[in-house]
């Protein structure tokens, strides 16, 4: 008997229900949509459409991968962030909804400022989610976007082209721990969602993160703080007086990062919570 949309959906849900993912039916439907190139309503309006064997094979492979923890976004190839659609592939961290809090805070502080250019530096480009949403929503912004991973810069450049933001972004391939890039402007904002998981804790993360997302984007050194320490102590080299330093942090790093900023002469420091009421963002201004 040949498979139909409905039978595939049921088979997929049965398999993914045995996993820890909390929305098997949504995930299965999205995978079906991806394979048939249809939107989600179609799954409900065409339950009896026959699906040929080739597609069934692909479906089985993808559901199997997903069952093993392979991130859904790597299968579908994209993720929404700040209302924009980002291409995502292996080698870049999947943008998280919590990071939107960091972006919203920066946009609120800068989208009305009457200055020719708001100069921003994003450290750890990844897919470009932070860089490109700031470039998109802050009209007079210019973003210097740094990543150690060539693969990440490739993905981010693709996203930059899709959003048509080429004139507002400069990508810099660099290890920030070897020094800030030389630029001839003072920055209004330095933003970073750096790797912040202590090296020894990575294996204990959810399997989809630990096994499939890039270690380079997660590993924050022995104490998880290596990037905060480096960036906070060097920020004055490029950050203008009153310029904003804005970090995403791990849920238990609020106090330590706040202290780091205090020790390095930052003012107006705020620790901001995420949707699950965990500390997630720390911001401060250069004195
Ligand atoms: N937020 C990621 C996680 O859930 C970690 C991202 C990072 O290290 N910046 O594991």
Short description:
The chain is α/β, with parallel strands linked by helices and 287 residues long. It folds into two domains: 3-68, Orthogonal Bundle (Helicase, Ruva Protein, domain 3), CATH 1.10.8; 82-286, Rossmann fold. The protein has eleven helices and nine strands.
Structure, described:
- The protein has 287 residues and is an alpha/beta fold.
- It has eleven helices and nine strands.
- It has helices at residues 5-17, 24-36, 40-45, 53-67, 72-76, 99-110, 129-137, 150-162, 207-212, 226-234, 254-263; strands at 78-81, 84-87, 118-123, 141-147, 169-173, 187-192, 239-248, 266-273, 279-286.
- The strands form two sheets. Strands 5-4-3-6-7-9-8 form a seven-stranded mixed beta sheet, with helices on both faces.
- Helix 1 (5-17) crosses helix 2 (24-36), helix 2 runs antiparallel to helix 4 (53-67) and helix 6 runs parallel beside helix 7.
- The longest helix has 15 residues, at 53-67.
- The chain binds glutamine.
- Residues 96, 193-197, 205, 209, 218 line the site of glutamine (GLN).
- It catalyses: L-glutaminyl-[peptide chain release factor] + S-adenosyl-L-methionine = N(5)-methyl-L-glutaminyl-[peptide chain release factor] + S-adenosyl-L-homocysteine + H(+).
- What's the CATH class label of the largest domain? Alpha Beta
H/E element order? HHHHHEEHEHEHEEHHEHEE
Mean pLDDT over all positions: 96
Distinct ligands: glutamine
Oligomer: single chain
Unreliably modeled segments: none
């Amino acid at each position: 008997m040949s498979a139909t949309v409905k039978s595939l959906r049921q088979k997929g849900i049965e398999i993914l229900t045995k996993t820890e993912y909390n929305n098997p039916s949504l995930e299965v439907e999205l995978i079906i949509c991806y394979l048939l190139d249809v939107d989600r309503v179609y799954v409900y309006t065409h339950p009896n459409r026959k699906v040929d064997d080739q597609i069934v094979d692909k479906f089985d492979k993808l559901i199997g991968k997903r069952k093993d923890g392979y991130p859904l976004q790597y299968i579908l190839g994209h993720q929404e962030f700040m209302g924009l659609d980002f291409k995502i592939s292996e080698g870049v961290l999947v943008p998280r909804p919590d990071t939107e809090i960091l972006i919203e805070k920066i946009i609120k502080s800068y989208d009305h400022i009457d200055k020719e250019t708001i100069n921003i530096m994003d450290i750890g480009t990844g897919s470009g989610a932070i860089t490109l949403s700031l470039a998109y929503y802050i009209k007079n912004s210019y973003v210097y976007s740094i990543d150690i991973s060539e693969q990440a810069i490739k993905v981010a450049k693709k996203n930059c082209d899709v959003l048509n933001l080429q004139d507002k972004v400069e990508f810099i391939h660099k290890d920030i721990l070897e020094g800030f890039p030389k630029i001839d402007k003072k920055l209004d904002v330095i933003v970073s969602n750096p790797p912040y998981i202590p090296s020894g804790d990575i294996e204990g993360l959810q399997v989809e993160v630990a096994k499939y997302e890039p270690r380079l984007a997660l590993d924050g050194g022995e104490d998880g703080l290596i990037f905060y320490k480096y960036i906070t102590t060097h920020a004055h080299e490029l950050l203008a007086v009153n310029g904003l330093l804005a970090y995403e942090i791990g849920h238990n790093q609020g106090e330590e990062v706040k202290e780091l900023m205090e020790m390095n002469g930052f003012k107006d420091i705020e620790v901001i919570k995420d949707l699950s009421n965990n500390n997630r963002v720390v911001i401060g201004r250069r004195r």
